[in-house]
Amino acid sequence: MNDLATLAINAHGGLDRWRQLKTVSARLKQGGVLWQLKGQGGVLDDVGLTVDLRREWASHRPFGQANRHSSFQPERVAIEKNGGEVVEERASPRESFAGHKFDTPWDSLHLAYFAGYAMWSYMNTPFFFALPGVESDELESWQENGETLRRLKVTFPENIATHSARQTFYFDRQGRLKRHDYEVDVAGGTSAAHYVSGLTEVSGILVPTKHMIYPRQPDGTAAPSPLVVSIDISDIEFK
User: Fold this and answer.
1) Over the stretch 24-73, which tens digit does the pLDDT of each residue have?
2) How many domains would you assign to the chain?
3) What is the CATH number of the domain that holds 180?
4) CA dihedral sign, ordered 59, 60, 63, 69
């Protein structure tokens, strides 16, 4: 791995500790303009999340109704009753976003896919830098709010479902995550500047508990508005 990738992983708890863990669960309170814009307002305002740390799988609960949850994998997304009965499902779900733009409405399975891969990505950062096929290279440093941030360009293989194949992560001198840039391919390649804060240690892992996502401008700076997505994370538990 790149030296900055190694520094970041160590700063967040280290790969040895991470590999001892199998899942993480948490409570999410989410806001921002995206959900209403996509016709999915209220569905994910206050939900539970479970993420697998060994394979790419995530679930939000409840999902639309009290007795339902989502089940995301790169090759399949579903909404299920809590007893396991499948309400609806979609194979090859990424293909269903073809032609979508930022304001294209989503159905429930679009939402489950997007929210699933997004939260799997956020909860596995920066440890997924060590996964097979993930490549990283350090870029020139970045000045923001009087602070010098080190930047890591990360390229993901096709088998990992995430926002875009190439993303940029920003770290302070200690290797702690501060910002994350990407294009949202499933929303027409919309550019995002994603800020994290409120880093909290849980079971030896440093986890950002506050996420604020804004449009990213051509010069690389974040637009002051709108707030596209906000995520507040609490009740974090690793197993």
Assistant:
1) 999 999 999 999 999 999 999 999 999 999 999 999 999 999 999 999 99
2) 1
3) 2.50.20
4) positive
